[in-house]
Design brief:
mainly beta, Rieske Iron-sulfur Protein, 3-stranded antiparallel β-sheet
Length: 119
């Protein structure tokens, strides 16, 4: 988790959304928190190995971001949206192709064997 997520999360309450064993390396899984679908990405080779962003694609409106392909583009860790292939930064949520599009980034942490998100 990056430092900005840490500062934000200290003001918020953590919620367990799944277990470490539910994560899939180099891929996404989707969890439900307070009426919102959140895509979790576990990238063990990265400095920040766990990312959480909204699952809803802002362009199509479909809940598909968790099924996107992860990679590195222009020096950023990204996920490619499955339908229109736009790339979203897993750290900031911004769309590399269209600055008008962005996904919410959630504070996320591993607490023992529990994956937790902060509201």
């Amino acid at each position: 988790m990056n430092l900005s997520n840490t500062a934000v999360a200290q003001r918020n309450h953590w919620h367990t959304v799944c277990g470490y064993q539910d994560l899939v390396a180099d891929s996404g899984v989707v969890v439900w928190l307070e009426g919102t679908q959140v895509a979790l990405f576990y990238l063990p080779g990265e400095e920040c190995a766990l990312y959480a962003i909204d699952n809803r694609d802002p362009r199509s409106g479909a809940n598909v971001i968790g099924r996107g392909l992860v990679g590195n583009l222009q020096g950023e860790v990204v996920v490619a949206a499955p339908l229109y292939k736009q790339h979203f930064s897993l750290q900031t949520g911004r769309c590399l192709e269209d600055p008008q599009q962005a996904l919410r980034v959630w504070p996320v942490r591993l607490n023992g064997q529990a994956v937790e998100l902060a509201l």
